Every structure is written in C-alpha cells, then in structure tokens.
Amino acid sequence: xxxxxxxxxxxxxxxxxxxxxxxxxxxxxxxxxxxxxxxxxxxxxxxxxxxxxxxxxxxxxxxxxxxxxxxxxxxxxxxxxxxxxxxxxxxxxxxxxxxxxxxxxxxxxxxxxxxxxxxxxxxxxxxxxxxxxxxxxxxxxxxxxxxxxxxxxxxxxxxxxxxxxxxxxxxxxxxxxxxxxxxxxxxxxxxxxxxxxxxxxxxxxxxxxxxxxxxxxxxxxxxxxxxxxxxxxxxxxxxxxxxxxxxxxxxxxxxxxxxxxxxxxxxxxxxxxxxxxxxxxxxxxxxxxxxxxxxxxxxxxxxxxxxxxxxxxxxxxxxxxxxxxxxxxxxxxxxxxxxxxxxxxxxxxxxxxxxxxxxxxxxxxxxxxxxx
Amino acid sequence: xxxxxxxxxxxxxxxxxxxxxxxxxxxxxxxxxxxxxxxxxxxxxxxxxxxxxxxxxxxxxxxxxxxxxxxxxxxxxxxxxxxxxxxxxxxxxxxxxxxxxxxxxxxxxxxxxxxxxxxxxxxxxxxxxxxxxxxxxxxxxxxxxxxxxxxxxxxxxxxxxxxxxxxxxxxxxxxxxxxxxxxxxxxxxxxxxxxxxxxxxxxxxxxxxxxxxxxxxxxxxxxxxxxxxxxxxxxxxxxxxxxxxxxxxxxxxxxxxxxxxxxxxxxxxxxxxxxxxxxxxxxxxxxxxxxxxxxxxxxxxxxxxxxxxxxxxxxxxxxxxxxxxxxxxxxxxxxxxxxxxxxxxxxxxxxxxxxxxxxxxxxxxxxxxxxxxxxxxxxxxxxxxxxxxxxxxxxxxxxxxxxxxxxxxxxxxxxxxxxxxxxxxxxxxxxxxxxxxxxxxxxxxxxxxxxxxxxxxxxxxxxxxxxxxxxxxxxxxxxxxx
Lengths: 372, 482
Known about the structure:
The structure holds two protein chains of two kinds.
Chain A: H1 6-15, E1 20-23, E2 35-38, E3 45-49, E4 54-58, H2 63-72, E5 75-76, H3 85-88, H4 96-101, H5 109-112, E6 119-125, E7 131-135, H6 147-151, E8 160-167, E9 169-170, E10 174-181, H7 185-196, E11 202-208, E12 213-220, H8 222-236, E13 242-246, H9 248-259, E14 270-276, H10 281-287, E15 292-296, E16 301-306, H11 312-316, E17 321-327, H12 330-336, H13 344-357
Chain B: H1 8-11, H2 14-22, E1 30-31, H3 34-37, E2 54-56, H4 61-74, E3 78-81, E4 98-101, E5 108-112, E6 117-121, H5 126-133, E7 138-139, H6 152-158, H7 165-168, E8 175-181, E9 187-191, H8 202-206, E10 215-222, E11 224-225, E12 230-237, H9 240-252, E13 259-264, H10 265-275, E14 284-291, H11 294-309, E15 315-318, H12 322-333, H13 335-342, E16 344-347, H14 357-371, E17 375-380, E18 385-392, H15 399-416, H16 435-438, H17 441-454, H18 468-480
Parallel strand pairs in B: 2-4, 3-4
Antiparallel strand pairs in B: 1-2, 5-6, 6-10, 7-11, 8-9, 8-10, 12-14, 12-15, 13-14, 13-17, 16-18, 17-18
Helix pairs in contact in B: 10-13, 14-15
C-alpha cells in the first residue's frame, strides 16, 4: 500500500493483520519479516530555519533532498550519516526517517555526537495506531521523558516515524586531513588518543591497518585549519611516523570512503561493526578472527570483514561494548542476531517497552529482543 | 501547587520502615527525627515545603539497592535527591515518603584520559568533576549555573544544560553510561566507556526522567580537553528585533560561538545598578563568546563584529584580555543576584524558536503591564532557551499566585510559538500541571507507559512531571495494593 499521509499510516497499522516490516528507503539491510510498511511516500521538508539551525521533515524525505536544501544555506547534517547502499549492494533511496530509526552516525560522531543527538522531535504511530509526538523543534527541551532518544536507534520496533525535527550545523569553510604513515594498530590508536586529547578539535580519527595510515581531520576557517594542522603535526612528531597533509578535496573523499566503509565494498564475507572502548580496539580486532578491519572513532568503532557465517561475538568474548552484524545473508542474521545479546535486566526492560509501545508485537518482530 | 494527600497507612508504618532501613544502613544514615528531616523539606523551589517521613543517606550502590528493595516491599514512595538545587521542585518530598539522598556518594571511580572519560559516583558535584581532571587540561562540559553545588545525579535526572551547550550539548550528549538501581532493588548497567550503548537507547530515556525510572548511582561521563582560550564580544542594540536578527545572522555565517547570551533593558538596568559592569543602557545586549588560540579568537570576533556592524549597534566591545572578558561577563553572571536585590523572583526557562524572540519579548512586556509585575529577560539566545525573571513580593498575600499565573501565561506562549515549557530546569511540580499545554493525552500516556515498565507500582517520585489527574489511576494502583 502506498502511504502518503500520517492518517494513511495510522489506518495501515490499525489494519495490519500480522507482522509488519517497517521501512524508510529499505537500504540498510534490516532483516524483518512481514508485510512491508514503507514511509517513503511521506516526503517533504515542512520547515527550514537556517538562523535557528532547525529542519522539520516527513520521515520518508530522501536524505539527499535534505542535504541539498542545507547546502544552499551552507549548512549540513553534522553527524555525517553513512550511505549503506554500496556496502550492502542495496537499492532504493535512503530516507531521513531510516537514518534516525537506525541512529546512523559517521566519523564526526566523536566530536559532534550521534544522529540521536541531532534529533529534536518526532511524531510516530505506535503499535495501536495512535499518533504520538515527543520533543519539538527547539534545541533545548527537557519537557517530560525523552522519547525522541528512545525512538532514535529503535529500528522501527517501537513505532513508525512519520515526522522528524532536526538540528543542523554550519558547514565549515574548509577541512584538511593529517595522515601518519607506518604505525601499527596499537601505535595508531595511541596517536589518535593523543590527538583527541588535545585542544585542536579533531573531527575525524581513523586508522587503516592495511595501508598503515592514521588519519586526523580538522575543519574550520582556513587560517584556523592551517594553524591547528601545524600544532597537531608538532604534537604527533614524537610518533616518528612520516606525516603528510591532504587538502580539502582529498580530505573530503577520504572521509566519505571511511564513512561508507569503501574498504569492504564488493568483497565477499560478513561485515561487523564493533563499538568499544578505543584503547581496547587493537586487542579486540586481533582476537576477532576477522580477515580485515579498520578503526574509526579513534579506535572506538571497528569495522571488520569476517568469513561468512563466522560468529564474531563468540571469538571476541565478553568486552565493554557491542557488536552489530551489518552485512550477512538472511540465515546468518537470523542465527546470530543483528544486535548484541543483552544482559537479562536490560532485555527485560526492552521487552517491557516493546509490550507498551507495540502490544501486538508486529513491528520488526524479534529484531531487537535478544537476551544473552 | 497541589500535592497528593499523604497516605496515612504508610505513615502509620514509619517505625517499622525506620527499623528495617536501620538494618541495612549505618546508624547516622537514617534520619527520622522530625527536627532533622526538616533539612530535606524543600529544594531550590523554596515556595513549597514538606518534611519527608524519613531521609536516608546511603554510601554505596548496594545500600541504595537495599533501601529501594525495602521501600518497594513496604510500598513507601521514594524521592531521590542530588544536592537539592532543583528550581522545579524535582526533589520536593511528600509527608509519606523516604528521601534518598546520594550526597555521601561522591567518589571518582576512574579517570581515563586516553579514552577521555571519567566515572564518578553521582553525588559528586558538577564542578568537582571538572576539578578532578583539570590538572590534566580536561573539563566536563555541561555547566549549569548551580554547578558549584548541584550533583551529577540531579544533572542526569533533569538533563541539565548550561551557558556553553550551544557548542558542547547538554547532559544527555555527554553521558556515556550509568549504573542504576530500579525500584525493586535490581542493579543495571547501561552503556559505558564506549559510544552508543547497544540495544534501545535506554540511556537517552533515563537522562531527563526526573528520578522516576531509577536511582542512578554511578555515571560514565565524556571529558574534553580545554580550548586554548576563550573571549567574548559585547554588542548593544536599541531594538530587540535587530538583536534577534543579529544572532540569526551570526549563526548563518557559519561561526559557531560557544555561547550567545542576551539581556533586555530591565535586566541591563538592574544588573548595572548592582554590579556596575559598565554596560550601555540599551534595549538588548548580546554577549558572544568564541574559543581557540588568540589568533583564532581574534578572527572569529572580527567576523562577528562585522555582522554586528551591519545592524548599527550602539556598543561593540571586543575583549582583548582576561580582565576585559571578566568585566563583560560580570553583569550577566550577576543578573540573578541583581534581580534578587530588587525583590523575590521566579525564574522560568521555556524555550522558543530564535525567530520568535521579538514577538515573545513584546508579549511578555504586555503581560508584565497587565499583571503589574516587573520582569527581566536573560536568554541563551543561540538555542532559544529563555530565562524570564518575574519579580514579586513573597510577603504580599496573593503575589506568589499572581506571579505563577503570569509565569504560566509566558510558558503557554512559548509552546504557542513552537517552543516548550522547560529547556533545562525540568518539569518537577512547577510545570507539571502545564504539561497538557504541550502534550496531548496520548503523548503523556506514551511517557507514563515507560514509567509503568521501570516502576510498575509508581513509587519513585510519583507526584512529579505528569499532571496529577493524568497519573491518578496509575498512582491509585499503588494505594489499592496497601
């Protein structure tokens, strides 16, 4: 059914006779069975105030449409959402609702925050077909519980987003990336920690073990970027690494590749995403049994390419963080679960919330309920 | 402000409850003498007072768990308390409750500069978190103006903000993990020293839940390296609307200041008489602060000044030194004290879209005439968080009620123009009965359903956040279980 209004969405939810697969553009490989319920038809920007740094859009609005509107005012989605299509080989058009439902954040997560930190307000339809709003379109709002954060990253399991309000940020004048060559994983992660522990406002920190490249991004006014690049170079000279600087165009390209996991596009195997304490990264990667990996978020995010069907979580054992299975066949995703199993206490709260928001358990059933 | 009638059946069990609490806590951690419980009768919303039945001061997560388990078994409501600096009455007791204060839990558990985190017990004050890491050049970003006294527990409960959140975000954007005790005594861990806790974003839900979902005993917080420096520029305008346009132009130009503060004429006059900061007498004053090296600051301040000059400011003063910066901030930082010199005041904190600023200030001026109460406006202009200070005389019968009515009208206006009731103070009891203005019954139901999951018996801080009529049936479940 083609849903083009919130009311039609309400009717579709109320009329659903069984499991429903909640979708935006369907580009992010979420394994959900049932009748597809897509919000792609709910599209359009209803409000954009550049001076207030806020945008309100229907959930099915293409990300590209929002980015284009922002670019005209020299603003952007600062959390740098990944485009999953090349990695997953998926088709379709990424939507802003999908970005928020999956809390998709890119390399700039370490400095500006995640997608959820830019979500100011939501309207959604719960499992009873009730329209609920939470938050609003102002940047500071502590009026009642923050269901906005709860909806972000809930992958459609609590409700179907119909409208989102976002905070946007100015696009800096320019950017540059410092590249250190020849460091191993441990020294690369240590160099990134050193850079992030400085006052120079690094907005991207990634390490590629294959090329032994450690990348650090600085953004801002031209004079400021030049100044901070010099400072960073001095700070990191003690690593003994060979250092060069990539200008704006190359820098932009490098971070788009990091964001979209270009290294694993088209390569056979499953793709995992591990969130961990940055300094734990190298040891985790080493025992993961994966074929290849690289670090984003200064080591706090590891992207791993593993043999198909390999249970990476079992290889990692217990650690501070969690592993998400991003790319695998349907059977593997069903067997291993996309999301990391939760301790019993949290699993009970998750189930309790699911029962309140979606009492029939029809939205993306079973996707996020996975007790250890 | 109406509070539920205390349950006499619970109060009749006081002796047994005290005895059981004494069984799990040190002798001096259970306060039940009526002269001593008075110390906990209110928070910073001092217009409302009620001594609790008992107050307890546990020293560990396990003790918190024991207290909550006992109160759960006895059906006693629990009101968690950080430092008691809430301006919204978030820690106001009821006569049948146990106040659970976390003040004795103020240890630093771990500092980790490599991973840029600190783990603390939540009774620790906001400023002393920064105090624990500043010798290494780090700081904890959220900076509510009560930061000398307020506890991290309360910051998490209210999702506190501060003057610098335009750049650094509020508590929820800087909180990475919590250890929390549920009402039945179960201890859970959410998140930790890594980004984006797995599963549903329970951390985001807990932050700002006003002590209604659990008692947070430990927190993992993001720390940042301090900038090389910071300096403000002071800009005066003879028109509110022009000042508002200037703020919007600064943001559109791609400069992201760390703070943009706004003061209107009544506030400027009051602070000038009090602090003598040398402010110009004009309709609107902006203080815009930027960070970086000296050269970076000069560059940004010049860009901001260029924008300001296009709007014909009556004053434009770039700080060139720490002394000049202190002088510019002096008046703003004395604003609340200055208003307090004139009379008692009520501080609101509704948020509005920045574009509505001139309209809202004009309407507040008209309401001020109508109610015959003076009002001064201080405002975090970059993010739309207003702080109208309404002056009244607490000794004059009827003045508090008049002030509350005026305040409610202002908050309704904030919602009407697309904003919200509270930007950083929280709902507590103060804005509880206005929640209907911002949220429909279904919206409130969705929020209350969350509490049903975490605290099915509605024993944790039950009379806050939701209008009493809306939460009545849920709270009645608890009474019926007696």
